[in-house]
Design brief:
mainly alpha, 2 strands, 155 residues
């Protein structure tokens, strides 16, 4: 259809405005510590547990691999750069939410978003997020940082 082609030509933000009927409130959730994010991602890929904690047997099978973590770091950095470039190209200033702030202050972050949507911030629910990282993740992060320095891997 012609309208759909025109929306695609005008870009993603234009298409969102067309569908929503107004300027969207954009929220950019990001992890400042990409190495920790990469370690979490690599463990989740191996355990297939994306939230909460995996059972100990499944988690014990997950293995540290500097090359895999380096690949994920590179992928995540490219995604971060892509989003920041898109925001700049579109002239958009999203609500910036660092992940550690989100999981420590979920109710307040949701209240901020609700307020930006002209809704009652008191509707923000109580937190339900649980940090997946544990001592093993922290050890892998430190191990990777040492490997990265020694082997010239991305951080």
């Amino acid at each position: 259809p012609r309208g759909q082609r025109e929306r695609l030509r005008l870009g993603l933000l234009s298409a969102i405005r067309d569908v929503v009927g107004s300027d969207p409130v954009l929220i950019h959730v990001y992890r400042p510590d990409v190495v920790s994010q990469a370690v979490s991602f690599w463990r989740a890929v191996q355990t297939r547990v994306w939230r909460g904690r995996p059972d100990p047997v499944r988690d014990a099978r997950a293995e540290y691999h500097a090359g895999a973590i380096a690949h994920v770091v590179t992928m995540l950095r490219a995604q971060q750069d892509g989003w920041r470039n898109w925001f700049a190209e579109e002239g958009v200033s999203p609500i910036e939410v660092p992940y550690p702030v989100l999981w420590r202050n979920l109710t307040q972050v949701v209240a901020t978003v609700l307020q930006a949507l002209d809704l009652d911030p008191r509707l923000a629910p109580a937190p339900v997020l649980e940090r997946q990282a544990d001592q093993r993740s922290d050890e892998w992060v430190e191990r990777y940082r040492a490997d990265a320095e020694q082997l010239g891997l991305p951080v």
